[in-house]
Amino acid sequence: MLAVARLVRRIRSGVDVRGTILEAVRALGGASSAHLVEYEDACGSPGARTGEGPAAASSLVVTASVGVDMTGTRTPIDATSVYVEVVRSGRPLFLADPAADPLFAGDLLAASGARSVLVHPVQSGDATLGVLVVAWNERIDSVSDQRAATVDLLADETALALDNEVLLRRLERTAATDALTGLPNRRSWEADLPALIASARRTGAPLSIAVADLDHFKVYNDTFGHQAGDDLLRRFAAVCTEVLREPDVVARWGGEEFVIALPACPEAHAQRVLDRLRAAVPEGQTCSIGLAVWDGVESPDALLARADAALYRAKALGRDTVASAAVGSNSGPSILTSSSDS
After folding, report:
1. Which is catalytic among the residues 38, 40, 256, 267?
2. Per residue in 80-100, pLDDT tens?
3. Start and end of every GGDEF domain (predicted)?
């Protein structure tokens, strides 16, 4: 039980311990192999749960294995399978002679040569997260109380580990999301921009960056109230996601400012995209946009500074304008503009 205690401490530290759990299951159960099977959602990501509705999970997938590597093996959620039976019933199932059981015949684990199998649900509250599969290469007629209790304990700890992982993912998403608009926030943008530049450097494709600012937002806020101002920000964020292309990235920089990345988008095309965005500002309001195209060598900060300088130039030109900074203009003296009449 000392090994279990060490495992529990590691699980609660937040480390991904799937492999460690399975090593403990195999060792303490005297088994030949052990596997963790989780729900896989329609996007191919582990973590869907039965409580999230039938569309949440499209299949079951082996996410970790020890002894025999079955990682990546998928079982459709509607298949005749011992895995599916256990996740649906929520009850452990021991097969002393799985080869004679029709539930086991369709499972790819049958090809591993397992002579006896214990499949135990991994549950958190009323939700079934997956199953632990323990396999022996020699036939055993029954699972001892001690072995069963050990697998039951480790299934509970597996649920804790998976819950911690889900919580961590949610916290990470929350930390990277603007609470008002639902867009990525400044922190997320600052993480994404270097990666976008690295991709542009690798592919040689142009990368356009823009800073958009809602014109006279303070006046709008003071006139109609903060709730109306918040609603305008939310609606503009929605317009951004509708107007921009699939690969484009938009984030709320702060206040009424938004930053936009247009990968593989040359300046002329970026101008047209941003003009469509400018023309779609809700409530009859307008916005000014500064545009800069990565010059192939500058840092993320330098690129954003050029776009920001172009934004200030757009404001100086009368607002409701897309102003494009020429390459190499650190202070933004050379500006091409696209006015509201274009």
Report:
1. 256
2. 888 888 988 999 999 888 877
3. 205-327
